[in-house]
Write a structure and sequence with these properties.
Blueprint (H helix, E strand, L loop, with lengths): L2 H30 L1 H7 L6 H17 L1 H14 L2 H19 L5 H4 L2 H29 L7 H28 L3 H6 L4 H18 L5 H8 L7 H6 L2 H36 L4 H15 L1 H13 L1 H26 L13 E10 L2 E11 L5 E11 L2 E2 L9 E8 L2 H22 L2 H6 L7 H17 L2 H10 L7 H4 L4 H17 L10
Antiparallel strand pairs: 1-2, 2-3, 3-4, 3-5
């Protein structure tokens, strides 16, 4: 490749990547702050139900992504790649900013979760149109035989977006008190996205249309009805279904297990301090992100299928041992408590009238450097413990662990391994999808299976896995906490079998 053409494609990648990174940042801010958001926009009398409702609202943004893929994919194949993902960028940025402006449940009642849901749906629609446009745009600028390498740079944006969201949250937390952050500071990361969107808008504004699409349009070879030609044509529909069930379905669950499920597991099951989790996850992402490009480039030489299928297979086999090791690393039953350092401080809080919370804060220290804060809240009325809807005493216990350096690096390593699985299945997939479909219906055809695989199969993972854990019988045992992994293992397993049997290596060169 000449210096001029190399400089040109780097300009294309920079413009596409920055916008896509911002859209992923916007999308992941919600998931990263799910624990805090559940206390702001949902009824506080049932924390578990509020958290599950937050995850369901988070998942709703994923479920609607295929509709965004259809709507914006059609526009992209009709009027062009550039203008379509300019619209998706502005839609995503506006919705994210407005989530940070919604009053709490205590202020406006049920309108709070309703407004959050509407804005999450708009985010999902926007993201449904963004990825296909960015991946197609870069692929159509890439030289023949190098699509895997150049499109893999787009693949890094989702992980970079998550990393940036974690860093913004950490910085925001570090410059204000815990009380201020939980009161209003959590809104700041939502507001920050507006500044990034403005910068990205001006960068994208100067971009030219994809040369491949511009040529097809000039020659009158664009699709008159992209939806009909993509899904009404049996030959093309076969490839759409193969892309979904033989690749993106498994890729989606591996992606969200390695990043979001890991984060939720560390914060909710292992009860590790949120800032520590964000930091160790950020380190693992920084170490793992370059491998998107490594496996993308390797796929140009050995084929997309080989790398993606191997990534799924290793993930299927390794997930349970990895999460068992994660749980064991911070298991307090395997640590020695320094009993003489244990302190308990009782406090009382008047909630309303005769309703009083008796709060007992216990701090424990362990010989390996781990410290634990346990806050037990007993809800009382007229001197008696209140009962919930099921007739049980309303007693809440919140545990927060601050882990030592050795445990922290062990967890970084275990999350890093999962990120490697992600890079294997995700690095080559943009090029894989682009090459399956002709130019005139490429945006529409590749966007739908990608967003069904990621939006529905992947996006539902946190809610379904959490549900599987909460309905498991043997509470308290490590195996009980691993029940949620059956969802990604089964979905990835089915995808692996279909992919191995039906994906032909010739797909790599179908539409070079």
């Amino acid at each position: 490749m000449s210096k001029a053409s190399s400089k040109g494609i780097w300009k294309v990648i920079s413009a596409s990547s920055m916008g896509t990174m911002i859209e992923w940042y916007d999308f992941y801010i919600f998931g990263s702050l799910a624990v805090v958001i559940s206390t702001k926009f949902f009824p506080s009398d049932n924390p578990t139900a509020a958290f599950l409702s937050t995850l369901a609202t988070f998942a709703a943004g994923f479920v609607v992504r295929p509709f965004g893929a259809l709507f914006f994919g059609r526009l992209g194949d009709l009027i062009g790649r550039k203008y379509t993902f300019m619209v998706t960028l502005m839609l995503m940025g506006g919705a994210t900013f407005l989530i940070g402006c919604i009053p709490s449940y205590e202020t406006i009642g049920f309108m709070a979760p309703v407004l959050v849901l509407i804005l999450r749906l708009l985010q999902g629609l926007a993201l449904g149109g963004e990825y296909g446009g960015a991946a197609t745009y870069v692929a159509e600028h890439a030289p023949k035989g190098e699509r895997g390498y150049w499109t893999s740079w787009i693949q890094t944006t989702a992980t970079v977006g998550l990393f940036v969201s974690l860093m913004v949250i950490l910085i925001t937390k570090s410059v204000m008190s815990k009380e201020a952050f939980e009161d209003w500071g959590w809104r700041v990361p939502f507001w920050v996205s507006v500044l990034m969107v403005v910068v990205s808008y001006y960068i994208r504004k100067g971009m030219h249309e994809s040369p491949v699409f511009a040529k097809a349009k000039a020659e009158g070879k664009t699709a008159a009805n992209p939806l009909k030609e993509s899904f009404g044509n049996k030959y093309n529909l076969k490839f759409v279904l193969l892309a979904l069930f033989g690749a993106t379905m498994g890729q989606g669950v591996v992606w969200y297990t390695g990043q979001f499920y890991a984060m939720n597991f560390l914060k909710t099951v292992q009860a590790i301090d949120s800032s520590q989790v964000d930091t160790l996850l950020g380190i693992a992402l920084v170490l793992g992100t370059p491998f998107f490009v490594v496996f993308g480039k390797l796929s140009d030489k050995v084929g997309r299928k080989n790398i993606m299928m191997l990534g799924m297979l290793i993930a299927i086999i390794a997930y349970r041992p990895i999460y068992r090791a994660m749980y064991t690393t911070t298991d307090l039953t395997k640590k020695t408590e320094i009993v003489e350092k244990t302190t308990t401080v009782p406090t009382m809080k008047v909630v309303e009238g005769t309703k009083i919370d008796s709060i007992y804060t216990t701090n424990r220290a362990y010989t390996d450097g781990t410290t634990v804060e346990e806050i037990k809240t007993i809800h009382m009325e007229e001197g008696k413990v209140m009962l919930d809807d099921k007739g049980k005493e309303k007693v809440e216990t919140k545990i927060t662990k601050k882990i030592n350096n050795a445990d922290r690096w062990m967890l970084v390593f275990l999350v890093f391994i999962q990120v490697i699985f992600v890079t294997m299945v995700y690095g080559p997939i943009a090029a894989f999808l682009v090459e399956m479909f002709p130019v005139k219906i490429r945006y529409t055809s590749m966007s739908l299976p990608y967003h069904v695989g990621n939006g529905i199969f992947g996006g539902l993972l946190p809610a379904i896995s959490t549900y599987l854990v909460t309905t498991a019988k043997d509470a308290g045992d490590v195996e009980f906490y691993l029940e949620g992994l059956w969802y990604p293992i089964i979905i990835a397993g089915v995808c692996f079998v279909i992919g191995m049997i039906y994906i032909d290596k010739k797909i790599n060169t179908l539409h070079e």
